[in-house]
Write a structure and sequence with these properties.
By secondary structure, the protein is of the alpha+beta class. The chain has three helices and eight strands.
């Protein structure tokens, strides 16, 4: 089953495609794919003109204990985010902060997540610049 990716970008220097590859690698316990944006092209009647499949770039080799710790930690973190409480599925997520080089510039918030936790088919990555909210 393909993993479906949602990207949200609100002005930041963070490269969300790298976050997408990162969360995909975490969700798949180490399989890092080359980025593709199209899985197939169809004509007006729904006939498939072209199919596209992501190719594996590399495999991150870690013990199953480490992967389980990463997945469990992200699932526990997602449980603390009130925005996810109304969803009817178990989610894995992690937030982060990207700091600007100059101390006078605001930080940027990032969020990566995947769901369902036990069999990921949806990936999400977003980055928000604080200055949009407070300037």
């Amino acid at each position: 089953m393909p993993l479906h990716l949602q990207l949200v970008r609100v002005t930041t220097d963070t490269v969300l495609f790298n976050l997408a590859r990162y969360v995909t690698t975490l969700a798949t316990s180490g399989t890092c794919y080359n980025l593709t944006l199209i899985d197939k092209i169809t004509d007006y009647d729904g006939n498939v003109i072209m199919e596209n499949h992501a190719e594996v770039n590399n495999q991150v080799e870690l013990s199953s204990d480490i992967w389980n710790t990463i997945h469990t930690g992200m699932n526990l973190a997602a449980g603390t985010y009130s925005a996810f409480s109304s969803l009817k599925m178990s989610i894995a997520a992690k937030t982060g902060t990207a700091q600007e080089k100059r101390t006078t510039d605001p930080d940027h918030a990032t969020l990566i997540s995947y769901a369902p936790y036990d069999n990921p088919t949806i990936l999400y990555g977003s980055a928000y610049s604080e200055w949009l909210c407070f300037r």
